[in-house]
Amino acid sequence: MDQVGIAAKETKSPWGAPKQVVAACSLADVMSEQLAKQLDEECNVFPTCPDVSEPLFVSEDADTSSDLMLAQMLQMEFDREFDTQLRREEKKFNGDSKVSISFENYRKVHPFADSDSSEDEVDWQDTRHDPYQADKPTTTPRKGFVGKGKNITTKHDEVVCGRKNTARMENFAPEFQVGDGIGMDLKLSNQVYNALKQHCYTEQRRSARVHEKKEHSTAEQAVDPKTRLLMYKMVNAGILENINGCISTGKESVVFHADGGSLEDKAVPGECVLKVFKTTLNEFKNRDKYIKDDYRFKDRFSKLNPRKVIRMWAEKEMHNLARMKKAGILCPEVVILKKHILVMSFIGQDHVPAPKLKEIKLGSEDMKGAYYQVLHMMQQLYQECNLVHADLSEYNMLWHEGKVWVIDVSQSVEPTHPHGLEFLFRDCRNVSTFFQKAGVADAMNVHDLFNAVSGLQINADNEAEFIAQIEALEKMNEDHVQKSGRKAIAMMTDGGPPLFDDDDDDD
Q1: Is 391 labeled as catalytic in the residue annotation?
Q2: Keyword Magnesium, does the record have it (predicted)?
Q3: Which residues are CB-neighbours of 388 under 8 A, at least 6 positions away?
């Protein structure tokens, strides 16, 4: 082909400027080395760059004749598309996670430069208006106010001060839940903030006291380090093979099941229970009324601190069980006593404790038989053991091998106690009410049952008069005990089980 090219026609350029007429040239001219050098020199000459410090957004009628301006606009559009794709990737990467990772540093156009963007897919994590981002509270300059005239705002402004108090709540303890007050634009007054702050400090101190208290006392289903040490010593001494776990808890004690071991002077049952009396003084605040007026412990009670009284409480149950066992009443057999831990025989079989009368459903004949057993037991307890249970109810009587067994006698007192007959009347009311509701036709009312157990013949038309006569008898007993009560102290030596001596008995 001898000649390349055609005559250029004048046409309107889409870029807004007419094209220059291109002269026809031959192939030889194109391949000419001289022409190549000339073109290279022309390409190295660049026009003066315009000022690009201004915003890159132009109106529709802007001049687009500059190739540099077109390139910048195309680059900006490319950057926007890149940022849009980046936001999609970020949203896909984070998903529904509460902890998100931001791709902000990889963006080409940052929010402050992309204020006119109208993209629909804008993630709040990529913007300045993050609703979960804690903005710093508005601060005032050192002079204490901003603005002039009517628009002046001081550091005491209600809105400014309220937002600042809300932000300061973030400094509270982690366990104190303050919520997203900043995101809700919450404004707290000084009075409310100070009350919340004081409450936070009070809760921290209370939590510390409770934690320390539980470490140094026997709490529900748990024992303090000193109690655990006593239990370990019993296992190491061979008295117990192992301690299995907690059976029940009450207001005064925690009961554990254990496998029996051996003692030199007596046999240890195969299954035992450890009754650990709680050392928290507020668990059973009315202990003193059962023991301070008991002549057997009255002198010792006044000389002991409250924690040592709890050991005396365990000793009291040991002596009461020894009396009941000697009289033939069905009750746990005491193995050994160590401070506030009482080891007794287990009422039940194969780690399963015997059910309480309240829990078991007996037939009419068995229920009738249980009633007469309880009646006989109460008479033996009062007349032969010289004791009143003081907390007898269907919750403290077990049904085992077709017979009724009595437990929890730590609060039992003698009839000569200043409130002994009142306790007996309360026991009779509990027993009579339970068996009457159970359908036992032979069950006596509370007055007849009290007279049958105590042997007294108190006649009264109503309960108030009956209780008045009981209180009169108690007053007579109290005067008698004050004169000759010392002679009865010898009854404490009733052949009870041995005390487990130890060298650390001073605490």
Answers
A1: yes
A2: yes
A3: 381, 382, 412, 413, 414, 415, 417, 420, 421, 423, 424, 427
Q: Are strands 397-400 and 352-353 parallel, antiparallel or unpaired?
A: unpaired
Q: DSSP string of 231-242?
A: HHHHHHTTSEEE
Q: How far apart are CA 419 and CA 413, in angstroms?
A: 9
Q: Please pick, among 114, 224, 391, 427, the residue that the annotation labels catalytic.
A: 391
* CA-derived radius of gyration, the chain: 46
| pLDDT above 60: residue 111 | no
Beta strands in 77-137 (DSSP E): none
| pTM, entire model | 0.53
Output the pLDDT for position 222.
Answer: 59
pLDDT in tens, 66-101: 788 888 888 888 888 888 888 888 888 888 877 778
* 3-state secondary structure at position 335: strand
Round to whole Å and give the CA distance between 41 and 25. 19
Contact 188, 162 (CB under 8 A): yes
342 φ, ψ (degrees, to nearest 5): -115, 120
Give the orientation angle of helix 446-454 with respect to helix 420-437, to 10 degrees.
Answer: 130
For the chain, helix, strand, coil in percent to 5 are 45, 10, 45
Nearest to 239 by CA among 338, 331, 348: 338
Q: How far apart are CA 425 and CA 474, in angstroms?
A: 12
What token pair was written down for 483? 């004169």
Per the DSSP assignment, residues forming a β-bridge with 276 are 254, 341
Q: What are phi and psi of 34, to 5 degrees?
A: -65, -40
